[in-house]
Structure formats: C-alpha cells, structure tokens
Amino acid sequence: MAVPLAFLDFDATTMPEVWSLGDLFNERISSSSFSSLLDFLCSETTPALYSPVRSRPALPHAELRHFIANFVLPHSVGRQPLGPNDRVLLMLPASPENAVAMLAVCCYHSCAPVNATCTTTELKDDARRLGAKAILTTREASKRVDLASLQDELQCEVIYLTERSTGPAGLFDLSTSEETSPPMPLRPSRAHTLDDISLVLHTSGTSGKKKVVRYTLRTILVGTWSVVHSWALTPSDINCRLFFVISLF
User: Which fold has domain 4-182+198-248?
Assistant: First the structure.
C-alpha cells in the first residue's frame, strides 16, 4: 500500500544526535509539498477502519478520503457556514463514526472532542471556554443534556450525526434541528494547512481548572509518525487507539 507519510521513514543510525524524532519529522514535513490533511490520506482500496460489528464491511482508505474531501457541515438559516479554525465540539460516543468525524472536522476546522457522557453544566462550561461555534452530536445525546434549550444561550450551531444503516463502517449523514433540509455549503471550507489549529483538547483539570491545549496539523502529523516509528507499525497492523494512525497508515 502506498503510504503518503512513508517519506518520513529513515535510518536511525543516520539521524543527527542533536535531533529528536519530532525535530526530524517536522523538518521533513515542512520541506515537503504536502500542505493539508487530504495530502496525507491514502487512496488505496485496503481497509482503513473496521467496525466492532462483524456484519459491517470495513471502510477502505479511498472511500474515507473521498468522504473527507467532500465533507461540509450544514448550517441553520441565518447562520454563516463554518470556516477554518472555527471550533467544533464533538460530543459523540466511541464508534467508527466518531473517528471519521474527528478526521473530517480536523481537516477543515478546530476539532474539540468532549466526553459524550458529560453533564449539561460541563457542556456549557466547555463550549464557553473554547468559544465553540458548533456542537456535533447525536440526537440521543442532545436530548440527555437538553441541548435544544441551550442553543440560543451558547450562540452556536447544533449539528446532528446519524449513522448510516448500510455500507462501510464510519460513514454518516448530518442535519440541523430545522425540519426542512438545512443549507449546505456548495463546497468544503478551505482545508487547514500545517499551522492551522486542527485539534483542541482539555487537560484533566487536576489543578481545579481545565486548561486548553491547541494542536496544529503539523503537530498532529509529527506525533502520529512518531508513534508509527516508535511502535514499528506496518501497513498490515491494526491500531485501535489512535484514529490518525488508523487513517494515515
């Protein structure tokens, strides 16, 4: 399988002693012609993502890339489409759809995953702290925290993810709370480049207050290949912990 990030591989005996893995990978990514997450996604027909439900077929790399290349977030009437670095909270249960959603959002916006079982108060605090422009969730999770009543208070879009009942694992459809079909941008937002903020995480808050940690696309790619190298992963390995490793390799 052709792995776009394979150009980062190297002979450890030739690495300058003053460099770390991060330094080396950052230098190689920076000097490459690749600039967006789409450049780093495989286009092969081999599996990229498996479902825990054995009856569901795996999602091929090429289909995953096509889905992300055409990914757009709907918006309500009167609201503007989301753009680069706009923060989108993902309140989704662990699933193949969650993994694909994180990749797709990271490609164009700032993805901020939150605990799918968070309380209403926790969700409000996280959304305000992060300055969220949208919350991507399921209708079931939305009802649990009464998200419909919070939408105006938080001044953000609420977008619902619906898992597809047939086809490869991980693909989904999106909608808003409006009964009619929501407006859809004609084309995806500008894809993030290496120094755009693609992932936003919270610390555990052990000091009494959560802190926000921002990751650029460059940082994510460096970290991903550091894991690939440190764990000696090969294209035939299945990694169920890191969604970027699964999709990029």
Answer: Rossmann fold (3.40.50)
On the 0-12 / 13-18 / 19+ scale of CB atoms within 10 A, 109 is buried
Domain boundaries, the chain: 4-182+198-248
* Digitized pLDDT (tens) for each residue of the chain, 249 residues in all: 677 877 777 666 566 666 787 888 888 888 888 899 999 998 989 888 888 888 889 999 999 999 999 999 998 887 889 999 999 999 999 899 999 999 999 999 999 999 899 899 999 999 998 999 999 999 999 999 988 888 888 889 999 999 998 999 999 999 987 656 666 777 889 999 999 999 998 876 666 677 889 999 999 998 888 888 888 877 777 665 545 544 554
Strands 59-60 and 47-49: antiparallel
Is the pTM value of this prediction over 0.90? no
Residue 194 contacts residue 29 (beta carbons within 8 Å) = yes
